[in-house]
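Hi support team,

I've been running sequence recovery on a batch of backbones for a student project. Most finish fine, but this one hangs at about 90% for roughly twenty minutes before it completes. I'm not sure whether the input is malformed or the queue is just slow. I've pasted the structure tokens below so you can try to reproduce it. Let me know if you need the job ID as well.

Thanks,
M.K.
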């Protein structure tokens, strides 16, 4: 009992919660607000890079908009990001606005726990050896966690070129609905990044939540290509048009034709359109959200199913 009471005083919440959600995950809405105008961007904003932390959207929202995240059922404000306009990309006559995240705050924990938890999290980030923490300042990771208030689905991305094959997990992905694009933000150090820019197509396998351990194991393929599809711990099947091996047990396999790619800071930002979409099963997909978001839901309900 005493231990339970003491835990939040000495241990930070986990930064990320891995949760099981049946798609589409629309429990949280995202709204861009500028000069008294608002636009729902729940399905029209994605992370384009981590350093600097950049958000992409098809909505032109002025120089300094705010991005609000609210619980869809209650309308309660969960967090806000302050954005500053950086640039626009024009692809197939559609414009994509890029916004630098300059500040942010969440409302999932009450004061003083919110400030104390942030201090504990920042302290453990400074001590950790993960490549993400080497890349990003703790303040930027805190802002990234706010962007994860909209739970992010996890896919395995398959790359199949004549001399290079690979499959690795991604969650910095999502639709830019008004422009009809789907985006991927891949660290430019990824071993398949240049092949993807040349081959211009990939297959995305929506991963069932129970396959989390395998998905995490495959993160090593961000650094090392796959030697042989038969070495994978699960069966694959060819994707519909390009014949790229995708996960046979996936909930859904979508083929993305890549129309544009460019480096934005630490990441390569890919924009593409789906050319096929095969739904194989209903069920819960692996998602990531912020740990403080799950803490909020455990208190006010309904909590996400943890995996
Ligand atoms: C579930 C999951 C999703 C990931 N999503 C992305 C992504 O969208 N973009 C990216 O560049 N890297 C992504 N990564 C890779 C990690 O950010 C990291 O580079 C990789 O796990 C190697 O980490 P390490 O250098 O700390 O060992 C993902 C990893 C995992 C496990």
């Amino acid at each position: 009992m005493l231990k339970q009471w003491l835990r939040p005083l000495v241990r930070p919440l986990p930064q990320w919660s891995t949760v099981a959600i049946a798609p589409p995950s629309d429990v949280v809405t995202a709204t861009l607000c500028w000069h008294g105008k608002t636009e729902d961007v729940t399905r029209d904003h994605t992370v384009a890079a981590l350093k600097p932390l950049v958000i992409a959207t098809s909505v032109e929202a002025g120089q300094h908009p705010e991005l609000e995240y609210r619980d869809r059922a209650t309308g309660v404000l969960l967090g806000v990001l302050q954005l500053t306009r950086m640039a626009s990309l024009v692809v197939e006559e559609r414009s994509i606005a890029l916004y630098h995240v300059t500040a942010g705050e969440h409302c999932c924990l009450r004061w003083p726990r919110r400030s104390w938890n942030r201090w504990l999290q920042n302290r453990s980030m400074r001590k950790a050896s993960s490549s993400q923490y080497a890349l990003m300042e703790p303040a930027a990771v805190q802002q990234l966690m706010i962007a994860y208030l909209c739970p992010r689905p996890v896919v395995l991305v398959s790359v199949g070129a004549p001399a290079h094959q690979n499959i690795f997990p991604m969650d910095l992905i999502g639709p830019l609905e008004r422009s009809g694009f789907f985006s991927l933000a891949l660290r430019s150090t990824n071993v398949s990044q240049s092949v993807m820019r040349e081959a211009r197509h990939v297959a995305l396998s929506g991963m069932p939540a129970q396959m989390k351990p395998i998905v995490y194991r495959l993160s090593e393929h961000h650094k090392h290509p796959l030697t042989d599809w038969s070495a994978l711990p699960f069966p694959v099947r060819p994707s519909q048009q390009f014949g790229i091996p995708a996960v046979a047990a996936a909930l859904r396999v979508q083929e993305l034709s890549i129309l544009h790619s460019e480096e934005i800071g630490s990441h390569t930002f890919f924009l593409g359109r789906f050319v096929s979409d095969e739904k194989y099963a209903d069920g819960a997909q692996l998602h990531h959200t912020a740990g403080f978001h799950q803490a909020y839901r455990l208190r006010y309900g309904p909590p996400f199913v943890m995996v």
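--
Follow-up from support: It reproduced on our side and the slowdown came from queue contention, not your input. The helical segments are 2-10, 113-127, 131-135, 138-147, 193-199, 212-217, 291-300. No action needed from you.
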